[in-house]
Amino acid sequence: MRIVFFGSPGSALPSLKKILDTGHRIELLISQPDKPTGRGKKLMPCPVKKMALDLGIPVFQPSRIKTDAETLDKLKDIQPDLNVVVAYGQIIPSSIIYLPKYNSLNVHFSLLPKYRGASPVQWALLNGEEKTGITIFELNEKMDEGDILTQEETTILPDESAAELEARLAQTGAELLIKTIAEIKKIKPAKQDHTLATFAPKLSKADGRIDWTKDSLYIQRKLRAFNPWPSTYVFFGEKRIKIHKGKKIEGQALSSSSPGEILKIQKDGIQVCCGEQRLFLIERVQPENRNIMDAYAFSLGERIVPGDKFT
Predict the structure, then answer these.
(1) Is the pTM of this model over 0.70?
(2) Between 3.40.630.30, 3.40.640.10, 1.20.1050.10, 3.40.50.170, what CATH number should domain 2-196 receive?
(3) Which residues contact 220 (CB under 8 A, 6 or more apart)?
(4) CA distances from 143 to 118, 176, 247, 249 (A)
(5) Percent of the chain, pLDDT > 70?
């Protein structure tokens, strides 16, 4: 099958590899434009583009695909059988969606109609879901509302981070994608029940700030959900501190304690009062412009004592 592949981040790589391994031809790869990275703001290609160049696959990177006539012209020249979209990062216009013989498929990292949007893995973890999965669906002009072709459910593992869960779903999605393509002539699409839809909006760095008025379990889930991006952080005075590892702990805080107050400092970390008068243990941190370190070592360097607060 002649395929045009739309994708950008590392989570799209397993699907790209699987398509090639099973004998399909990727005639063109469309990814997001290169982005400035690091202190020097050097333009860097996304992981999918890097692989495509290594394999000799033509790459095109429109800045706004909805208004880019050249993209449509390229697809008309190719006349693909199918478009495959995996975490591309832009809304694709109907002129491109419906151009191929079998239209366009999207590999989505949730069990639609739950968690439509850009960050389904993160929001599933943040909300304490026990299960998630992969949905292969037909693209239409609306956000993740197309008809479902296939789905596969998986249990979210205890303490699994967003990075770990996303990597696992990426592999599952690649396998399910190939099965779906093989059966595409036989599968009867199923309409989504829009009344059951939930949403997973795009995250920003500001979303990573810890609100100590939340309960300790929610804060623990946030550490998992926002690892590695946008990460979680607090402020100690004016210093921004990333939290890389922590967990809720059993036991009540002092009745007079307030959210964010540091109650105890031990070698295993810093105990902080949360909104429901429970405790959260910060184990590993990263101060601004410094390496990751044990929270206990950080407390010694900053001369933190019980009674101090994370603001």
Answers:
(1) yes
(2) 3.40.50.170
(3) 246, 247, 248, 280
(4) 10, 21, 35, 39
(5) 100
